[in-house]
Amino acid sequence: MTALHNTPVVEPVPGQGDNIVSTKGLAVGKVGLLGAVVIGISCIAPTYTLTSGLGPTISAVGQYVPAVLLLGFIPMLLVAFAYRELNTAVPDSGTSFTWATKAFGPWVGWMSGWGLITATILVLSNLAAVAVDFVYLLLAQVTGNEAIADWTRNLWINIPTTMVFIAIAAYVSYRGLDSTQKLQYILVAVQILAIVIFDVVAIVHAYNNGGFDFTPISLSWFNPAEIGSFSLVAAGISLSIFMFWGWDVTLTMNEETKDPEKTPGRAATLTVLVIIVLYILTALAVITWAGTGEEGLGAGNPDNQESIFAALSYPVLGPAALLIYVAVLSSSFASLQSTMVGPARTLLAMGYYKALPSMFSAISRRFRTPSTATIASAIAAGGFYTVTRILSENALWDTISALGLMICFYYGITAVACIWYFRHELFNSSHNVIFRFLFPLVGGGFLLIMFFVTAFDSLNPDYGSGSSVFGVGTVFVLGMGILLLGAVLMFFTRVRHPDFFKGRTLKPITSTHDDQIPMPEPADAV
């Protein structure tokens, strides 16, 4: 079988000169390679991700963080190649949802889309929470009033502030990728500069008797065999996978990029390569300066793990810690805004193909962006954050751990979908053997194994923050509860909107003929 290149059909926008839109109504040709990489890095949000994820990872595997980062990076890179191959054949903003549907049919496709959407909703609420924490840290340092930093613990202040951040991010995303790119160039530059400065200063100080618990860098830190327990390795990998998650936003923009068959895949690969360098450098800096002990400023101290930069920035940089506070705030807001791109465009695709009510396919007439889908993403993120913050003080940690489950789930399905989609031509060339069979098999298979191992381990209440619901670990309840909710909604949607599930709107690949049934025009919204 020869995969057909289903490049999105484009057409002029009435009254807008030479501007063109895809069949879904999205503006075309707005993002180049550099812009896509910047948005990809922004969505991963290295400064935010490090401050939220590095502590729990150190808690799981100690000084062997570089090893699990590499173990998490390798399947992500292999899956990125699978995404690239699928995007070349079917550049569609639905990404995992669309590709899994074409490979395995509507039921698997719907759940894959649900996994992507819920993972991004979870992280949106998390991003907003971290942004709020660092707003008040920044205000406390600028004003000299340390009491302001504690305002974030007051739910009557914290929750409304978080809602404001989510609303602002949704507004910028609603205005389109032009606004997104211009803002992201500045925010990404700030956070990368801050990370590099922190890392260099921490390592130099540590080697010159300026660290808290100087721990010389060792090559053994890169050897996962030194960790011992496979469960510890799996827990660390699950957390490190969360730290790499977000690069696939470059693929959800594929209908809006210049050269949609090549730019998104190249951007995804470049994004993960830049991120692994930043992460390993920071892991080395933190462990070398602070050690992994559980006392004082040690990186293994539970009091430091929820936000490692909040704990270490001032001890490492002194007054210049202000730069890190600004960077984490920038990173959180930048990612909050760019992450909004992913679920909105997946919801758009699901509405367009009638897998969800057609209102989700509504497009802003002015900005040519998903209107209802963007607003729905913001409302869902705000609602999830409000509920979890009221119910649990450990929501941040447990949400990050549950995210690892969701990410392994839908990335693994998408990678395996690549193999099945190209099944009739896997061995036609060495390129196909490597990029359409071997890489997706190893990367996707590994992530699916991690999904089941982590799900089993998270049954234990000691997993994650140590909290439980009726004796079952909160991480398991969050992750499996979200998937179960998705299954319920899927059956409900099948009853109310059967066309998608009957293959009338998005056909699975069964032969060399990949004819897609013509769809109605996308709905317009103000």
Short description:
The chain is mainly alpha-helical and 526 residues long. The protein is built from 19 helices and six strands. It starts with 9 loop residues before the first strand and ends with a strand.
Structure description:
By secondary structure, the chain is an all-alpha fold. It has a domain at about 25-95 and about 115-395 and about 500-505 and about 520-525: Amino acid/polyamine transporter I, CATH 1.20.1740.10. It is built from 19 helices and 6 strands. The protein has helices at about 35-45, 45-60, 65-90, 95-105, 105-145, 155-175, 175-205, 230-245, 250, 265-290, 300-305, 310-315, 320-340, 340-350, 370-390, 395-420, 430-455, 475-495, 500; strands at about 10, 20, 365, 470, 470-475, 525. The protein has a two-stranded antiparallel sheet with strand order 1-2. The longest helix is centred in the N-terminal third of the chain and has 38 residues, at about 105-145. The relative contact order is 0.19.
Write the layout of secondary structure elements.
Blueprint: E1 10-12, E2 20-22, H1 33-44, H2 46-61, H3 65-89, H4 96-104, H5 106-143, H6 155-174, H7 177-206, H8 230-244, H9 249-252, H10 263-290, H11 302-305, H12 308-317, H13 321-339, H14 341-352, E3 363-364, H15 372-391, H16 395-421, H17 430-457, E4 468-469, E5 472-473, H18 474-496, H19 498-501, E6 524-525
Helix pairs in contact: 1-7, 1-10, 1-13, 2-8, 2-13, 3-8, 3-10, 3-16, 3-17, 4-5, 4-16, 5-6, 5-13, 5-14, 5-15, 5-16, 5-18, 6-13, 6-15, 7-10, 7-13, 8-16, 8-17, 12-13, 14-15, 16-17, 16-18
